[in-house]
Every structure is written in structure tokens, then in C-alpha cells.
Amino acid sequence: MFRISSSLWERIHHFASFPQTGVSLQQMVLFGQNPSQGTLLRGSQFLLEELPVRLAHRVKELDQLPHNLSDMPSINKVKNWYAQSFEELINFPPIRLPADIRAALLAPPQDPVSLPESFPNPSLHYQYYSDDYGTPQTGLGIVSTPKNGKNGNGNGNGNSQKMRIPMERRYYANMSHVKEWPPEVREYNRSFTKTLEAIKKRHDPTVTTVAQGVLEWKRSRNARNINLDVQHWLDRFYMSRIGIRFLIGQHIALNTLQPHPDYVGIICTRANVHDIVQEAIENARFVCEEHYSMFKGPPVQLICPKDLHFAYVPGHLSHICFELLKNSLRAVVERFGPEAESFPPIKVIVVEGKEDITIKISDEGGGIPRSAIPLIWTYMYTTMEGQNIDQDFTDSDFKAPMAGFGYGLPLSRLYARYFGGDLRLISMDGFGTDVYIHLNRLSSSREPLP
Q: Which distant-in-sequence residues (6+ apart) come within 8 Å of 115 by Cβ?
């Protein structure tokens, strides 16, 4: 059983005093399809600096949650996972390099490639996310990042936060001027990747374990809904988790996957929107038909240019569409009944604008009453019966059944916002619902770091 020692707490508080550094999709794509071992080494060194800072922020916050939420066994379990990963990273053995290679790493390259400029993520305007749930309460017990977004992107030194070297000098380094890297570099990269894989696996059940912790807290207080400040904390915590897992997943992919002309790690530079949405439609219909024991579920019409491509993480887009389509299919089936001879089609329309690619999903599932609209974005709000989470349930974010435990919509919105997009819902009570997924096609927004 892992325990946080007093000396580890000191290190956690030290690292939590530094701001986090946001990275944009464009900057990540610059790593190229086939980076050298030296470029990967610089990426490893960036993550060895950045991940402990992000993990330390979360451990500190998990320890200081309001309303005795920190005392819940499942929340403690997650806090220990984060602290254990933090300890493994700060104790990771440094690389020993020959003097000439060390000098080459530090020297400015002959053909300096400047990183494209990244812009504050629009999601930072929601900090975090008071206008999403009605009037914010005062005295929330959790301090959020300032609205200007300066803290947390490495660009400012807000209260009690220390300055860091600009991100451009740390995350990416063009190492083409070094022709041969010693075997120690390859071994270091391999060893660091294995450590990251173990950390990623440890944190797989984080979403469901935190959900269990919130459920324990609700039961201990006989509460029907969760407080607004807990809601805000969950938004920030899960947004941070998306970022940590994305950085880790990207680095593992760069080190382990075979080069592919359209991929840089897990980022597809030419993601085909039509194919990704079509696959999500088929998966959602399959789950729906299985859940309701139907021969044929409601039809879904897709109107989308077949040659629409942009740089994105296909897994994120697939998850978002799958969750929303599942909701629409369930609403239509429950409105007309599984035995109905025919169903009105769900329409999915995809359009490319100057800044955004927008996906609209329209259903005739009866809509949502206006009074319930603010509730749909709250965690643990579900219209399905039996809201319990199996203690041994270890699936990651999106492997839930037809309807999970009220996390589908709020998590999907965080995934959309992570790269500067958004998710909006308009309901016509008595008829149906339109959901709009906005995706930033310029890929220039950096991560919104809570």
C-alpha cells in the first residue's frame, strides 16, 4: 500500500508552485513523422519536467477538496496513484552522455525551426465553468486559474508561482545536425517509455474511481445532486487528466509505433471526418440494438463531404460522436418504444467553416425540459436507473454501456474543449434535441490548463 511520506509532500508542494505549460496540436505535429532519438530525448526531458508539475497540482488539490470530499476512500486511492506516479518520475535516473553529445543537445541547431505560435484556449473563458451551470456560488473552496489564462501556460508568474523557461526552448528541438546517437540515448528513451506505459495503465480507472468517490460522498451526505464547487473541480480535474494522458499517449506512440505518412504519434494530420463519424454511428447503433434487443435500431443519416480532412486526434472525435449518438438513439427508442415499426432518422450534418468544423446531431427523441438543461452538464446526472459503479470496473473514460453513470455529456464537452472546440445543446421540448460539436480546425489553441 503506497503512502505519501512527509519528504514526498515537500517535493509535491515545491513542484506545485510552478505553472504548467500548455502545448498546441500544431506544436506537437512539428515533431515530424519519424523523429530522431535526439528529438525524442528532448521530448522525454520535457515530459520529465512537465508531468511532475501537472501531477503535483492534482495531488495538492485532491488533498484540499471542500466538504470532506478528500476523506472518501476512492478519492484517497486516486491521490496515492498520482503521488506514486509523481515519485517515479522525479526519481527517474538521469541520462549520462558523452561531452560532445551533451554539447550538441545544448547547441542551437543550424536550421532553427521556430515553433508555431499557440493561442490561449477559448475554454479558459469558462474558468471553470461558471456560466455552464447557472449562477456561481461564492466561497467555493477551490481557487480556479485567472481568467486571462496567464498562469498555467508558462507565460506568466501569477501569485506565488515561479517562472519557467519558455516552452519553445524545451518541448521541441530539431536534432537533424547530429548524425549518430549513442546507444545510451535509445536505451534511455526505451526505459522512459516503459515507465510512462506503467503510469498510464495505473491511471486507467481514474474516471470511474473518482466517480465512485463522489458517489461515496453523496451517500455520506444523503445528497441528490453534487455541489457547484465539486462540479467545477471535476471539470478541472478531468480536463487535466485528458492533458496528462494525451502527452503520455503521444510520447509512447512516437517511441513505439511504426512511422505512418498521416500520423505523428496519435495525432492524425489528415483525419477524415466522414470515416470517423461513420464508424461512431455504426458502433453506437450496435450498442443500441444490443441493449434494447432490437433487430434494427433507428436509422442515422450522415451528410458530410467525403474528402474533409484536418489535423486532430481521431480517438477524441470518435469518443465524442459515439457518446452523443448513443444519447440520441436512446432518446428516440425510448420515445417510440423498441417495438416500433419505424423510427424518425437521426441526422448528422458536418460543415467546414473558416475557423471550425461543426458537426450537428439532430434527433426527434422528445427533447429535454428547459428546467433540466443545466443538469445535463453535471456529473452523476443520468436518466437511467441503477446508478452504481462496480468496484472492479476499470475501463477507461468511454467504455461505458448504453448509458453509464452520467459522465457522457460533460466528459465529451471537455474533450471538445481540450483543443479549442466546444459542445452546445439546444432542445425543443416535446420534439427533439440538436447537439453542435465545434472543432477548431486551425489546431493552434494550446491546452486549457486548470
A: 27, 30, 167, 168, 171, 172
Euclidean distance between CA atoms 8 and 256, whole angstroms = 31
Structure confidence by residue, pLDDT tens digits, 394-406: 455 544 455 555 7
Cell of 354: 473558416
**Largest separation between any pair of C-alpha atoms in the chain:** 76
Provide the whole-model pTM. Answer: 0.84
Grid cell digits, residue 383: 436518466
Residue 360 C-alpha cell reads as 450537428
Pull the grid cell for residue 136. 456561481
For 298-301, which contacts have Cβ atoms below 8 Å and span 24 or more sequence positions? 298/329, 298/332, 298/333, 298/343, 298/344, 298/345, 298/346, 299/343, 299/345, 299/346, 300/325, 300/329, 300/345, 300/346, 300/347, 300/348, 301/345, 301/346, 301/347, 301/348
CA distance readout (Å), 203 to 1, 145, 149, 362, 398:
16, 24, 27, 35, 14
Q: 196 in the Ramachandran plot: left (φ > 0), alpha (ψ -120 to 50) or beta?
A: alpha
Close Cβ partners of 411 (under 8 Å, ≥ 6 residues apart):
207, 238, 323, 397, 398
Strand partners, 419: none
For residue range 1-36, list pLDDT tens digits in order.
Answer: 889 999 999 999 999 999 998 888 888 888 776 788
pLDDT band at 147 (very low <50, low <70, confident <90, very high): very low
Classify 422 as helix, strand or coil.
strand
Edge-to-edge order in the sheet of strand 300-303? 300-303, 346-352, 356-363, 432-440, 422-428
Phi and psi of 374, rounded to 5°?
Answer: -60, -30
Q: How far apart are CA 60 and CA 78, in angstroms?
A: 12
Is there a contact between 337 and 321 (Cβ–Cβ < 8 Å)? no
Residues 366, 371, 374, 376, CA torsion sign: negative
Q: Comparing C-alpha atoms, which of 226, 223, 245 is closest to residue 397?
A: 245
94 secondary structure, DSSP code: P
Q: In angstroms, rounded to a whole number, what is the distance separating the alpha carbons of residues 87 and 248?
A: 16
